[in-house]
Amino acid sequence: MIAARLTRWAALLGTLAGALFVSSVQADVKLPALFTPHMVLLRNAKDKVWGWAQPGEAIKVGINGQVKTTEAGKDGKWSVTLDPMPAGGPHSLSISGKNTIVIDDVLVGEVWICSGQSNMEWSVSAANDADLESLTAKYPKIRLITVPLVGTQEPQSDFKGKWELCSPQSVRGFSAVGYFFGRQLYETLDVPIGLIDNAWGGSSCEAWIRRDLLEGDSKYADLMSNWKKQEADAPKAEIEFQKKLDEWKAAAEKAKAEKKPAPRRPNGPADAMRGQHRPANIYNGVLKPTIGYGIRGAIWYQGESNTGNAKLYRDMFPLMIKSWRDEWGIGDFSFYWVQLADFLAERPQPGDSNWAELREAQTLTMNRLPKTGQAVIADLGETQDIHPRDKQNVAKRLARWALANDYGVNVPYRSPQFASLSIKGDKATVRFNHVGSGLKAFDVPEIKGFAIAGKDGKYVWAKAKIVGTDTVEVSAEGVKEPTAVRYAWADNPVANLYSVAGLPVTPFRSDSDAK
């Protein structure tokens, strides 16, 4: 993964320059990096092809017997929309103006964006069984492209990259969740698969959203005010930082001469300005160049960087999804995400949890937007590592959503969710939706993970038993009048309730303040 990150960062210098290569005075037809050999177009869809040429230049685009014509606008931009094509290929895509470009080995199949922060960026080379997974990654009909990490407030039109065939060599630096997801689709559907990896480790949700959308909503006033202050202070802070850096370098040289370890170079103010937290930075530098390309949907693994304000994430995350859909202009494409894994120390007693609140915010998003879904993985994390290595099962749970909802495959895909709470005497009965054929306790007969509170609002661990296909009875000694129930409500919950199909029950609290 480290090598992959270095490669992507090394591309940064060339990317910003390359994204600005288009000029209205250039005569040659040019295409963005998305249109290179081995690309995958979306099947049964009106795929958009675009590029640049001299203003007014006549453009002709041909593929698989169809020809589309257009003319470059005053800004040199042009685009055409292809007629839908079935899965297949290889085809040649030709683009002609004053020059001709022929793109060979174009397949038509399924295309997905693989997005988020480090757990999506996490490469195959760092996942479980990396050696075996790489050795068997011989799928020439799965195609991969990675977008370099560019953080900027200036919208980019292109990036430095190209499509590659999935091979033992190319897959090692690619998103593990993305690859395993795509592999499952390919092996199930037997059609070409295109995967676009644009994940950025440590990224905040606000960095993936257009700035005007955040500035236009009072909910984000404090967030934007803090950033505007940083932006105003950045030039002066950078000068002060460079002065300190010079002093550090001098001290480091002396330390080296004395054979003492030199201090680690700290980050400076300029890094925040071009980093992965600043609002709109990733939207402009990473997402923008891909908007418009034909995709079936997006998979997303992010949220760790926003656990400090989970309540704001309730609105921000749906805003991000909706804004992407609006700009793509192809309707409500599917958007499936990974709920946060279990992480940090296990707590001996029930209590509050920022991680649990962020999980709740993710779950709530399914009620707010259509064609969304969540892979629950509170059972796949690692206490001491925010990056669990088991990316295979994460990807399978995402793939279940896509297979069931986008491709009509009859597989269980949705984790059971809290539906209602009823109380009678000292017993609380929890009913769940999406249980399939029923519920079961995993590993041990005793159900773990439930907590119950009485009128005093204090939670204690509870006993629970399955009393129906979709119901669980919860109680605790000493709690005579229950008022609320929680399940798996912790940073690192110990919980073992699943559907019979093997999907973990979604963490919840019946006393949520969500409206």
Kindly report the average pLDDT value. 93
Total separate domains: 3
**Architecture of the largest domain, according to CATH?**
3-Layer(aba) Sandwich
The oligomeric state of the chains shown is single chain
What kind of sheet is the major sheet?
11 strands, mixed
Terminal residue distance: 40 Å
Beta-strand portion reads: 15-25%
- Write down the CATH topology of the largest domain: Rossmann fold
The CATH homologous superfamily of the largest domain: SGNH hydrolase
Cα gyration radius (Å): 25 Å
Task: Point out poorly predicted stretches.
Answer: 9-26
Annotation, overall tally of beta strands: 23
Overall body shape? globular
SS-based class: alpha/beta
Count of discrete alpha- or pi-helical segments spanning 4 or more residues: 11
CATH top-level class of the largest domain: Alpha Beta
| Portion in helices | 25-40%
Which helices and strands occur, and which strands form pairs?
Elements: H1 2-18, E1 40-42, E2 48-52, E3 58-63, E4 66-71, E5 77-81, E6 88-96, E7 100-116, H2 118-121, H3 130-135, E8 139-146, E9 164-166, H4 176-189, E10 193-197, H5 211-215, H6 221-257, H7 269-273, H8 281-287, E11 297-301, H9 310-328, E12 334-338, H10 354-368, E13 372-375, H11 391-405, E14 417-424, E15 427-433, E16 439-441, E17 450-453, E18 459-461, E19 463-468, E20 471-475, E21 484-487, E22 497-499, E23 508-509
Parallel strand pairs: 1-7, 7-10, 7-11, 8-10, 11-12, 12-13
Antiparallel strand pairs: 2-5, 3-4, 3-6, 6-7, 8-9, 14-15, 15-20, 16-22, 17-18, 17-21, 19-20, 21-23
